[in-house]
Design goal:
Distance between the termini: 8 Å
Number of strands: 3
Order of helices and strands: EEEHH
Shape: elongated
Largest sheet: 3 strands, antiparallel
Radius of gyration: 12 Å
Helix content: 25-40%
Strand content: 25-35%
């Protein structure tokens, strides 16, 4: 996996280099201020974990 930023990575998915990105809109950004809400980095890690398991990606933590 190569990091292109905290929420941009390219990782191997079953032999295919695959780009993942997480961009948050204004409503999501304001929701992050609510206590108990996952951070944007935690949300991106969760996305990589779920997709990685489902599609055979070597996604890990950026």
């Amino acid at each position: 996996m190569s990091g292109l930023g905290t929420r941009h990575v390219v990782t191997d998915c079953s032999g295919t280099p695959t780009y993942f990105s997480l961009e948050l809109g204004r409503s999501c950004t304001s929701a992050l201020e609510t206590p108990g809400t996952p951070t944007s980095d935690e949300s991106f890690k969760s996305l990589l974990d779920v997709v990685g398991e489902r599609y055979g990606c070597s996604a890990g933590t950026p």
